[in-house]
Each structure stands twice: as C-alpha cells, then as structure tokens.
From TrEMBL:
Source organism: Herbaspirillum robiniae
Top-level EC class: transferase
UniProt GO BP: methylation
Pathway terms, separated by semicolons: Cofactor biosynthesis; adenosylcobalamin biosynthesis
Family to which the UniProt record says this protein belongs: Belongs to the precorrin methyltransferase family.
Protein name: Precorrin-2 C(20)-methyltransferase
Keyword Transferase in annotation: yes
Annotated Pfam families: TP_methylase
Subunit record text: Homodimer.
Length: 251
C-alpha cells in the first residue's frame, strides 16, 4: 500500500493567480482536500481564492473552523482533526489542507501539522510556501516592506496603544496583523504620532469588498474594519535615494 502524504497549501490572500504552481499540482493530486470555513461564514474564503482554477471539487471536504477563545475547546478541535487526518494518511491517502495566505504564517495549519505529527510521527508531510497577506498588500499598494537596513517587525495587533507605540518607535516598519475591532484606536494612534500619511491598509485583497489605502490620514475605520485585514506602518517617509541630498524635502 502506498504511503499517505499531507500537503499544507497556502492559497494566497485573495486572487486565484497567487497559488504557486507546485502547490496547484499538489492540490490536483490530492485524494481529499480539507477546506476550512470560519463558523458563521456562508462560504470558505479559501475556496474563493481558488476561483477559476481547474481541479476536482468532488474531493473537497469542508470543515467548520472553531475560533472559540477557550483553549480547551480549541484543543479538542485540533485533537479531533489530527486524528481524522492521521487515519486517512495511514490508509495511504494524499490529503491536502488549505489555508489562507501562507501555510505557516499565523495559520491554523501549524496546529494541525503538530497534531498529525504527534499521532503519526513518520507521516510524509510537505508544506508549500504561499503568499502572505502583507506581501500581497505591499505589492498592491507599491509599498516597500523594507529597504536598505530598515528593521521590519511582523506582529499581531497588541491590546493597547502604549504597547503598539513602543513597537513602532523601536522599528522602522511594523506589519500589523489581526487588527480586527482595534482598528479605530490604531488609526487614532497613527494620527497622533503624525505618521498616518506614511502608512497603508489592505482588506480582502482581490475579493469582493476589497479596501486599499496608501494614506491613512482620512481612512474611515467603520468602513474599513473587518476580517482579512493587514496594516503597514512606516515610522518615517521612505528615503528616496535617487534624489540628491540637498534637494530632499523640497516640493
């Protein structure tokens, strides 16, 4: 009997064309394709990211993903999912697990992979690198994530403004993920620090309801808030190396 394989596939943050070719080959070769869907959502965002791509949709197995903050509930969820995947892998199936963005960047796949490894240490696992939301946002907005020796920090949004301010002050660029309902006070902080004009915001890149903003001075938090958002913070204006030093700052 053939040996099973687990393929972790990041489908990108939105546009279907962002799925790497190697990952697409693995997707098409899979016997079972796990498709996470957030509880309460009408449709899996991961499936929307695959719109227009040809593969056997009869192999899809949608699972409602539990985002409960209770760690015991999450533990039971991942344990059950790990047992299910491990059983299929032992049966020799090629199982693909889809996730939004990159498979191992703030992704549920990291927990799933750990659960499977504990139950089936000899499992053949292959993870395909995907495109992160902040890489897609930077490209869509033509916003460099780091040039020269700039220091870039990637982090989930802190719970308070003082902590975020300290992170901004100690780095050149901050990539802020998992902003959610904190967006109003984050925008207020950037305007208070007088750096909002250097910052950018993206939500639902390539999907319906897309929001792209390259200057956050007047961004309306009420209209921009929501899932699948990333904020790019630059402490100072980008250095223009093509401009002579004695001409910088001139209109």
């Amino acid at each position: 009997m053939r040996k099973g394989r687990l393929s972790g596939i990041g489908v990108g943050p939105g546009p279907a064309g962002y799925l790497p070719l190697a990952a697409l080959d693995a997707l098409r070769a899979a016997d079972v394709i796990y498709l996470p869907r957030a509880r309460g959502a009408d449709m899996s965002v991961a499936l929307q990211c695959l719109d227009g791509l040809a593969f056997d949709r009869g192999r899809l197995r949608e699972i409602e993903f539990n985002m409960d903050p209770d760690r015991q509930v999450l533990q039971a969820h991942y344990a059950q999912l790990g047992r299910e995947l491990a059983a299929q892998l032992r049966d020799g199936l090629h199982v693909a697990y889809l996730t939004i963005g990159d498979s191992l960047t703030y992704s549920t796949y990291g927990y799933v992979l750990a659960a499977v490894r504990d139950l089936y240490p000899d499992c053949d696992c292959v993870t395909y690198p995907g495109i992160t939301s902040y890489a897609a946002a930077a490209s869509a907005l033509e916003w460099p994530l780091g040039v020269g020796k700039e220091r870039t920090l990637i982090l989930p949004c802190p719970e308070d403004a003082a902590t975020l301010r300290a992170e901004i002050e100690s780095h050149d660029i901050v990539v802020l993920m998992k902003v959610g309902a904190r967006l109003p006070w984050v925008l207020e902080l950037l305007r208070e620090m007088d750096i909002a004009r250097h910052c950018a915001f993206a939500r639902r890149i390539g999907l319906e309801g897309e929001v792209l903003a390259s200057d956050l001075t007047t961004l309306d938090a009420a209209q921009a808030s929501g899932y699948l958002a990333v904020l790019l913070i630059r402490k100072t204006a980008q250095d223009k190396r093509h401009v002579p030093e004695d001409m910088k700052g001139q209109a």
